[in-house]
Design goal:
Number of helices: 22
Structural class: alpha/beta
CATH superfamily of the largest domain: tm_1862 like domain
Largest sheet: 7 strands, mixed
Strand order of the largest sheet: 2-1-3-4-5-6-7
Strand content: 15-25%
CATH class of the largest domain: Alpha Beta
Number of domains: 2
CATH topology of the largest domain: pyruvate-formate lyase- activating enzyme
CATH architecture of the largest domain: Alpha-Beta Horseshoe
Distance between the termini: 28 Å
Length: about 525
């Protein structure tokens, strides 16, 4: 059996490590379940620098070194694979996750140190790859869901690996391989009283997929959205569609996991990192969150404050939780059930209050549902955490003014993120030529620059420049309509107009097609 080293790259270096590498620890558990010897080095938790990576890579004769993450971790991933190749020249280096799935051919070209890429969902592909390594069979041309290297070193993409049908067949993540005490030290989140007083918070993933088709959201190949087809050069490449496989764990599986976490580690708060819990609820016929809440209470996880009607910061006990929601899909009844079970706060992607922008986002929400969602959520006792974005393609002074007006009416304070064309999103393919131009022809420089959308990278606004958007971010954060008026008057005095026709909406490139397909799923 293979000796495997998994490395979690540094994520959001500007912040403390708050979120465990859920996917990587799940793949570790899958590998151990097949009899392999696995070690996991969490570079994000330890933050010890390149020397620690060198020592870890040289610590054993690793058969496989694996790494994965989102595209925002690309800079750390690039550094780690270069070190790994130098310190462990005989190891087989495997990479996967969102950073590679969104642009596999480019990533394999930029990272010659990587021997094999796993594209899309890895739950079945990963153990198959390990079996081939065990058998010294390095011909991956018939392995689904990988990007291998031809004899000449060129990347070659195989057909899509169908998604698994039943998520409850997955093991629990290999928590014992993680430095959990580091993450527990950073448990507090300033979103609600329960979240701020948490001392042993951990992440749980209840579902995979999302029924929405938001143009700004990246695609990871785990939602039935990916196909592999010939590109204009005749090479296999990923292509994203509106296909969807909506899958979620049963409430019994999730509650069993949380009970195990409470027993083994004393966990007192769970952050559900699902893309959107409310879309799972709708996909289940509006049963899932009711059943999860009921099971949570039945298992004794309900915090005493929710049972007794006392403040959350006192008489702690049970396990509080949080997640993601949607302004158009929640209801007072389900929010009430969630609150009773211990839901503390929900992140709402409101994005904007401009009707034209909301209509074009593909999110299915409106100005009315955005506005009423805040009050509905607050009335339930759950704290809504609104996410605001500026710099949309159609952004104007009036759309900014509308968003500020509604933020003021609703009592929302938020520093907006910037509309960012992440690889794998519809916007990325629509604006790819402009992105490359903005980075002087160097697409990799753009990828290295990506973060959590709190800073300017590639601009996709048809009206505003990057420096103008930075100023508008501060105006929105302070809800300063007076200054917005001053800026607009100065802008117009220079002879500029709000004629968006000069930046007309581009057509999506080959790699994104706005059509639904029957998404492949394993039988």
């Amino acid at each position: 059996m293979a000796r495997i080293l998994l490395i979690n790259p540094v994520v959001r270096e500007e912040d403390n490590p708050k979120h465990i590498p859920y996917g990587l620890s799940l793949l570790a558990a899958i590998a151990m379940g097949s009899g392999h010897e696995v070690q996991l080095f969490d570079a994000n938790a330890h933050r010890l620098g390149p020397e620690a990576i060198r020592q870890v890579c040289a610590a054993d004769d690793w058969d496989v070194i694996g790494i994965g993450g989102l595209v925002t971790a690309y800079g750390s991933i690039r550094q780690i694979v270069r070190i790994a190749r130098g310190m462990a020249p005989k190891s087989f280096i495997v990479a996967g996750g969102g950073f590679l799935t969104g642009m596999p051919l480019e990533m394999m070209a930029w990272l010659p140190e990587v021997d094999l890429g796993i594209v899309g969902e890895a739950f079945v592909t990963w153990p198959e790859v390990l079996q081939q390594v065990d058998e010294k069979d390095f011909d991956f041309s018939s392995t689904l869901g990988v990007c291998y290297r031809s004899p000449g070193g060129d990347p070659v993409l195989t057909a899509v690996r169908p998604n698994i049908r039943e998520m409850d067949t997955l093991p629990y993540p290999a928590w014992d391989l993680l430095p959990l005490e580091i993450y527990f030290r950073n448990s507090q989140l300033l979103f609600s009283e329960a979240a701020f007083t948490a001392s042993r918070r951990i992440d749980v993933n209840g579902s995979l997929g999302c029924g929405l088709v938001c143009k700004y959201c990246w695609h990871l190949g785990t939602t039935g959205d990916m196909v592999v087809e010939k590109d204009e050069n005749g090479k296999n490449d990923v292509r994203f569609t509106y296909g969807r496989n909506i899958r979620y764990h049963s409430p019994q599986y999730l509650v069993g996991m949380v009970k195990e976490l409470q027993k083994r580690y004393g966990v007192d708060f769970v952050s559900f990192i699902d893309e959107n819990m409310m879309t799972m609820h709708v996909a289940s016929g509006r049963r899932w969150l009711f059943e999860l809440s009921e099971e949570w209470i039945r298992a004794g996880l309900q915090p005493p404050s929710r049972r007794d009607g006392t403040p959350d910061g006192r008489n702690r006990g049970g396990v509080f939780w949080s997640g993601t929601s949607h302004a158009n899909l929640h209801s007072p009844e389900v929010l009430e059930a969630m609150f009773k079970a211990g839901c503390s706060h929900l992140v709402y992607g409101l994005e904007s209050f401009d009707p034209h922008i909301l209509k074009n986002l593909g999110k299915g929400s409106s100005q009315h549902t955005n506005a009423t969602s805040v009050a509905i959520c607050l009335k339930s006792g759950i704290t809504p955490i609104p996410n605001i974005i500026i710099g949309f393609p159609e952004e104007t002074f009036q759309s900014i003014r509308t968003t500020i007006d509604y933020m003021t009416r609703l009592g929302i304070y938020a520093r907006p993120h910037f509309a960012t064309p992440y690889p794998g999103s519809e916007w990325y393919y629509a604006y790819k030529h402009s992105i490359i131009d903005q980075y002087n022809g160097d697409l990799e420089a753009f990828v290295l620059d990506l973060g959590d959308a709190s800073k300017i990278t590639a601009v996709i606004s048809h009206l505003f420049s990057g420096i103008e958007l930075v100023g508008l971010q501060e105006i929105v954060a302070t809800r300063n309509l007076r200054l917005l008026d001053v800026v607009e008057n100065q802008w117009r005095s220079l002879g500029r107009t709000q004629n968006l026709s000069l930046g007309s909406q581009p057509r999506p490139s080959f790699n994104f097609v706005a059509r639904k397909v029957k998404a492949p799923i394993a039988t």
